[in-house]
Amino acid sequence: MSTSTSRSNRRPSVRPPASGRPPSSALKPEDVDASAEELIAFHDLFQDCFSRREQRHWSLFYLCGQLSNIARKTIEPMVLALHGADPNAAIRSWWLEVGRQAYPGQHHLLIQADDGGSND
User: Fold this and answer.
1) Rounded to 5 degrees, what are φ and ψ at 119?
2) What is the distance between the alpha carbons of residues 65 and 73, in angstroms, rounded to a whole number?
3) 90 CB neighbour count, 10 Å cutoff
4) What is the 3-state secondary structure (H, E, C) of the chain?
5) pTM
6) 54, 102 contact by CB (below 8 A)
7) What whole-number distance in Å separates Cα of residue 99 and Cα of residue 44?
8) Could you read off the pLDDT of 55-96 as tens digits, one per residue?
């Protein structure tokens, strides 16, 4: 078989999508700052979709997590990567950043976790 024939039978190499490739060039700090400002401005367009302050907070957290360098882009790895392995760290962070202002005068926090089942 000739070289030209064997090449024509090969499947063309497929490049992974942009989300699966490393960045093509290094960003300057001012580019990162500008991108962060644009991301926050974009998120602000959807403020009316979130009736509660903590929904707005966690939706921005999730959006930033999607753009982070972590391998798995689901909420659990994002929280662990950005808040540490302490399971209470995310709750503590929320309380310090949002909860105390949202619920002034409250000194106790009751957290009820569902088992991932139906909401019926």
Assistant:
1) -90, 5
2) 7
3) 19
4) CCHHHHHHCCCCCCCCCHHHCCCCCCCCHHHHHHHHHHHHHHHHCCHHHCCCHHHHHHHHHHHHHHCCCCCCCCHHHHHHHHHCCCCCHHHHHHHHHHHHHHCCCCCCCCCCCCCCCCCC
5) 0.48
6) yes
7) 20
8) 888 888 888 888 887 888 888 888 888 777 676 777 788 888
